[in-house]
Amino acid sequence: MKKYIPFLFFTLLIAFYSCDSFLELEPHSQSIAVANTGADSVYFKSASELEAALAGAYGDFKNEYYQLDYYVNGDAQADDAYAGGDNPDNFQIDDYQLDAVNRNVSRDWAYLYSTIGKVNNIINNAEEVTDPDLTPSRKNEIIGEASFIRAFMYFQLVQLWGDVPLQLQEVTSISAEKLPEIYAQIFPARSSTAEVYAQIIADLETALTRVRVTATDKGFATVGAVNAVLAKVYATKEPHDWSKVNQYCDAVISGGYSLLPTFDKLWDNSVENSAESIFEINYTGGPSDGNWGVTIFRGKDWKKFNLPSNDLVAAFDAENDVIRKNASIFFDNVSGLWSDAHWPQTAYPFINKWRNFGGDGAQNYIFIRLADILLLKAEAENELGNTGTAADLVNQIRARVHLNPTSATSQADMRLAIEKERRLELAFEGIRWFDLKRTGRAIEVMNNAKGVGGASLGYHLDENRLFWPIPQAELDKNSNLTQNPGY
């Protein structure tokens, strides 16, 4: 009976709305604008409308997904943090006990596809805007920026869920005659991971030739940001293309970026949009533009999320990495406030990279920075057989925090050295889980993660838990969707 529900939906839809009516439909598996198909069918009538649409899409980098869940998914799902707090949905993520009705799973799917719907409208309709205030060069930039945003969102989706619906068009009208044509758009099946990556790369290649080279505000798509995401994509998709990773890392490195001399300056809020930053979401603070996400990770008013792990602290200590440990983790006394099995109340850790947690919310988030790309290039060089070059890059990162050069000399040892360096350098930046997945190390590392006193945390991660379940609500309304194995 379930397979007839979509057809019934269409029957009712067509009965209640004529084909020239305006209708907004937003199933969570996509975001579709069904536009007026009368005499005036131009979606955007002016340059200002198109600019506003693009600003709205950029604004989604400040929604709950990017302020909070991005870090839960990348850090609490890995060995850098425990779930912390009191949210059972986060506990499921931390313990690899997700189910298809988990609220984080549902909302993250919805957030990402909502943004995709917004940029689809821009990409598909920008060329029709004839307003003379919109120059051809700016129109090209807008399409490029929207393409970058779409690629960024699909990169999140494919890493979390694997095969996902590839929705690139909006429905422009609904009628019984068009049902065969638009049915698959409103109720899409999952596209293969390979198809999704192909589209991500195509969007990024479109963006690369259109976006601005640089921007003072690093929250906009630039050539450097596009090259950086291309490097990450080629390092993640199967099979990895290390030559492409190297190529795009080199393009970033030659783009005018440089490491800040002092690691802590990345996090003390004295240097925003720095020479090291490649893609950074800017907050001005206050009720209208404050980053409330930082209050989820730091503060003593209630028990916070993403509690730094014993395993990560032990990794910092084993390396004698005092500078990055102190910049990344702050220990405080929470006696009388709450307790936790992982840490004593008198030495309770908080994330220290996002420090404006009690102020006006003017705390930027850095999503991509040069150190990440230098270490990704080291990985590419090592996989291409250039272990000495890889060591030079790793040592460049280590020198900034006054650590001795790496002792790794073989390709196998260098793989582990780079993995460790990325962990210590990029802790709490939403990257660790996806690093472990793309290198095929997630199961081994997580099942051997240690807690208090070096005791096993008892994780039982397997292949079926490397991807999330398709949200049950999406399966219920779209019979073309299938569930991931193990759920």
Automatic annotation (TrEMBL):
Residues 352-487 form the RagB/SusD domain. Pfam families: SusD-like_3, SusD_RagB. It is found in: Cell outer membrane. Residues 22-234 form the SusD-like N-terminal domain. It comes from the Bacteria. The keyword Membrane applies. Its main location: membrane. GO terms for cellular component: cell outer membrane. Signal peptide: none annotated. Keywords: Cell outer membrane, Membrane, Signal. Gene3D superfamilies: 1.25.40.390. PROSITE patterns: PROKAR_LIPOPROTEIN. Belongs to the SusD family. This is RagB/SusD family nutrient uptake outer membrane protein. It comes from Candidatus Opimibacter skivensis.
